[in-house]
Amino acid sequence: MVDNGSTDESADIAKAFVKKEPDIFKYVLENKSGPACARNSGANKSHGNIIVFTDSDCVPSKNWLRKLVIGFSHFHIGAVAGKVESYKAKTLYDKFHAIFTLKGFTKLNIFSEFSLVRGGFPTANLAVRSDVFKKIRGFDETLPIYSEDYDLCARIYQIGCSIKYLPEAIVYHQHRNTLKGTWRQAFGFGTGHSLLLKKHFKRLIIIDLPKFQFITKWLPLRIWLDAAGADKKLLLIILLSIIWRPATILICLFLLYLFFDMSNQLKKNDLSAGFFKKWQLIFLLFLKSTALTVGRIKGSISNRVICI
Question: Which of 8, 69, 187, 277 is the most exposed place for a label (fewest CB within 10 A)?
């Protein structure tokens, strides 16, 4: 258990576990801030053949470890990722993130390539062979939060290993529960996208449209244009209505579509929300998609790529 600047009673709780079970638990203090530094510090103190990561805002399910390590069934599997689900989705923020944040797959899959939109997994639920972890020299400590985990996955593929995804190995994640936290997380994801685009690709063009995605490495460009976000759809309709006034009706129709789609998303995830709560969820959707776009634009300027 790595203490990376904890300011609550977490360190005392961790030390109490170590005192009670010294052969099972270890307490590590890492003063250099950042998740990459903290995870590397913990991994360097470990002695097993498999290094498993989860975070302080996560609650692993029963038999999580047993189900996760089963995935190392072949020598080419360098890491195994499990499913991340929302933990006790009771508040409005919980319900929103349960639908739109860190959504995993429903079926077992094996990935052998990082394409920016596929092949990356969060360390909330990730196991890596220790020899593979040492070979790629762990997490890149120069990277900020929100990109160091996907960068690790990308480098696992680069040495010829695959990552297996097991949906039955579940970790429950306690998501951001404020407007500020939701904005900062989405903004961080956006800046991370541009950074990963710069670091791992000399040529890659991704164009995301509603229900359509185009990916090519034909041209020596690094571009990701995501026009499928709620903020961009609304902006496009507003611009169209400025050019052609009758198109204003499309704004109402789009919002009405989002309302019914939100109802379907809630039902699909066994969640419920009243009439006004659904509109609040739609507001959070616009907030998150806008923060993601702003983060990508900022990252594009810093990393000299086009990621919007």
Answer: 8
**All domains in the chain, ordered by first residue:** 1-31 (no CATH), 35-173 (3.90.550.10), 179-307 (no CATH)
What span, in angstroms and rounded, lies between the C-alpha atoms of 26 and 20?
11
Question: Can you tell me the distance from the alpha carbon of 13 to that of 56, in angstroms, rounded to the nearest whole number?
Answer: 12
Measured distance CA(76)–CA(112) in Å, rounded: 10
Tell me the pLDDT tens digit for each residue of 90-144.
899 999 999 999 888 889 999 999 999 999 999 999 999 999 999 999 999 998 7
3-state secondary structure 270-307: CCCCCHHHHHHHHHHHHHHHHHHHHHHHHHHHHHCCEE
One-letter amino acid for residue 160 of the chain: G
Residue 56 has pLDDT above 90, yes or no: no
Q: Which helix (H) or strand (E) holds 32?
A: none
Whether pTM > 0.90 for this model: the answer is: yes
For residue 286, the model assigns a pLDDT of: 98
Q: Token digits for 225? A: 């244009």
pLDDT tens digits, 153-162: 999 999 999 9
CA distance 28 to 55: 14
